[in-house]
Amino acid sequence: MLTRYRNLSMSTKACVMATRILIIVGLSSGLLHSNSVLASDVEQKCQRSFDYSIYLSGLHMGEMTRTENWQGKSAVITSKSEASILGIGTQYQQRTELSWSTDRNEWLTDNFHQQVTGFRSRDMRVTFDNHGLKSRVDIDGDIDNYASKTIPLRDVDTLAIQIRENVLRGRQQFALIRQASDAIEPYQFYVKDKLTATIAPWGEIQLIPVEQTGAEEVTYFFAPSMNYQLVKAHYHGMILQGIIELDSYDDSCDTMTNSNLELGI
User: Fold this and answer.
1) pLDDT value at position 1?
2) Phi, psi (rounded to 5 degrees) for 202
3) What pTM was computed for the model?
4) Less Cβ crowding at N or C end of the chain, within 10 Å?
């Protein structure tokens, strides 16, 4: 794979990296929507919908829309994005089913279906077993199996939700593994000191940076004043820099969660 990548033209390399940014950073927005452990104990139905802007090396490249349907300790997340990368249109769709594991006290992926059209097109279906330690990956009919000894494998949506869960728990560093299309990618995460920044349209807010190291380097920025939502994510690439920013969202879950907290549930 690395040899094939080195033989590509610069424009094609940029497309490869840009598509990865679209997937890694674009879907890191899953951090915006997870419930806390306390909220997960309430058998509630609610929905969240979000709109995002995607930037590549400072240029606006596309948008993403997401919808989450929560029912107590499980959720179905659907996302769709469109971007133009060096004149090549790329569309991304994913549907993820996830649930809370009482055995592991973590969010785990049950299954997900990912479709990419345009550059690097693929149809990817993944199911998980043995509390997330095993996966079955079907890409355009080619099937592979993956396994992890101790850390569950997750899709990018559930990975993002578990990061936020760990931040809410006050953890300063932790390890997680993402199920990629042709490998499993281990990451280390480090929670940094709070900082203040101005992010439109939210103005000046306090943020908590979380740095991801490993196969992909990403910095996530959480806003405590916004129920620890992710307002920005920055992909640190050697060739290209990717950024996703929250533009707007509609949320019925936080209202229900706040009411439950006031009742002591």
Assistant:
1) 39
2) -95, -10
3) 0.81
4) N
